[in-house]
Amino acid sequence: MPYSLGLHSAARAFLSAGFATHFTVAVIIFLGIVLITSSLEGDEVDAPVSLPGNSLLAIFPFFRKRYDFIKWGFHATGQNAFQFHLLRVSSTTIIMSNKSSDSFCWQNKVIVVSGESARQAFFNARGLDLTEGFKILSGAIPMVRGVTSDLQTRRIQLIHKRLANVQRSASLSALIPRLLEDSRKQMESWGSAGTFDPFDKVYELIFQLTMRSLSSTDISDDPATVARLKKLYDLLDVGTTPATVLIPWFPTPAMIKKLWATKEIYDIVSQAINARQQNGIRQDDTLQMLLDSGDEKLVIIGFIMGLLIAGARATGTTACWLLTYLGGHSEWRAKAASEIEFLLASTPYSSDISQPLSLRLSTIPLDVWESSTPVLDAIIRETTRVAQPHTAMRRNIGPEIYINNKIIPTGAYVIYPFSDVHLDPEIYPDPWKFDPGRRAPEKTPFGYLGWGGGKTVCLGTRLAKVELKLVTAMFILGFQHSVVDKSGAPLNPLPTPNWNDILFARPQQGSFIKYERTSLPL
């Protein structure tokens, strides 16, 4: 009898509780059901082997220590393909699961593949969609329905076309002096000597250059607005947690911060567009090109919001590590400096070193930057190989395919880690060593994926390479530098990229650049 009374009391207490308590209990019960049913699910005979244990509990390192998670998965299964399930439930599914199509997607199958044959199949398969894969598995891009997500194919193609327009030779040539001027201002603000964290200062510089390249003069000329946008995008990075990806509708503090940051980014870009349209003052910038093309406002906003951070992150990571490596490899630093000085020797200011570097470098033609810098090309290639912790993400939009003799059903997500090829000692001996002089693996299919491969290659490659070369040229001629630890002591050996940091590969032990201005004016 006391037991019965206790149950009645508990029931009354629960019913009198508020909505928050009811909702929380419902979610816990739902997750418990998912946990049980997922463990009982069977796989097809030709399906990849599942991770040992309960995959729902095992997947959290995927978001925080992805490199270790994938490496462990291959080791634990002993296979060149394995799978796990990524819970991602919509609010509609819970409330109206019997009426919503989302109810069929409450558990997303993710398949990780490795090896040469898998690499070829992955990058050549027509049904593996990049946009769908990245949208679910990343979560760090500001998602606005109809603007940066859930876009029609026509809009995606239009954004790609506009990005190609930005990188036309005439546009890129006109952009070079502005990028160099932005670099000069940023570098002069560092002072004549000091120490900085490259993952702060160098990334800040690349963010400015990417803003200059892909947005408007009004925004990129305003340091306060640029700094605000960078902070908002940083909030998106920090706010991307397992909860915001797995249960994107649940109002966690991180999700609320992401929504707030996304709205503010949207408002800043939208206001810049409105101001340009209202004042009628034309500018020679990307925004003007988009307006002159007659694109819808949502397309313009989506172009700037999405491509801005996508470009700044990847290029920023490469720039941070490139200057770090050159600070610890004086021989390659000297080779790069000699190459740039050779190019300057044929410019109108070849003998007038009193002129600013930014002005002198701006007289080097675009085609020379692109075709006559083999040393810089080798340095950039090696940096993207060893310090870009990418995992290529796709979703199979159909039909089902086979990779490594394992079925990839329609709707499943597929991942190929770049570490599988870029850190393979059979392809790159001593793979963690920074060695721009190493020979390219020409006989290995897709042996280098720094800019993508197959049917999916980074569409901003041309712009990114130009930005990297300009920043490197300005810095190595304008400064002497080395790599030090927190106390200022020389750092030897150099730090190793942390591939678990999917944004910057920032070294766990930290590293700093110690610099001093040369006699050349910036």
What does the model show?
With 522 residues, the chain is α+β, with helices and mostly antiparallel strands. The chain has a domain at 153-517: Cytochrome p450 (Orthogonal Bundle), CATH 1.10.630.10. Helices cover 55% and strands 11% of the residues. The strands form 4 sheets. A 6-stranded mixed β-sheet has the order 1-2-3-9-6-4, sandwiched between helices. A 3-stranded antiparallel β-sheet has the order 5-13-12. Strands 7-8 form a two-stranded antiparallel sheet. The relative contact order is 0.14.
Which class best fits the helix and strand makeup? alpha+beta
Characterize the quaternary organization of these chains.
single chain
Widest sheet, order of strands: 1-2-3-9-6-4
Assess the beta-strand content as a share of residues: 5-15%
Parts with pLDDT < 50 across at least 5 consecutive residues: 1-7, 36-41, 89-106
User: CATH homologous superfamily of the domain at 153-517, by name?
Assistant: Cytochrome P450
CATH class division of the domain at 153-517: Mainly Alpha
Mean pLDDT, all residues: 84
Taking Cα atoms only, what radius of gyration do you get, to the nearest Å? 25 Å
Helical proportion, percent range: 40-55%
CATH topology of the domain at 153-517: Cytochrome p450
Distance between the termini: 87 Å
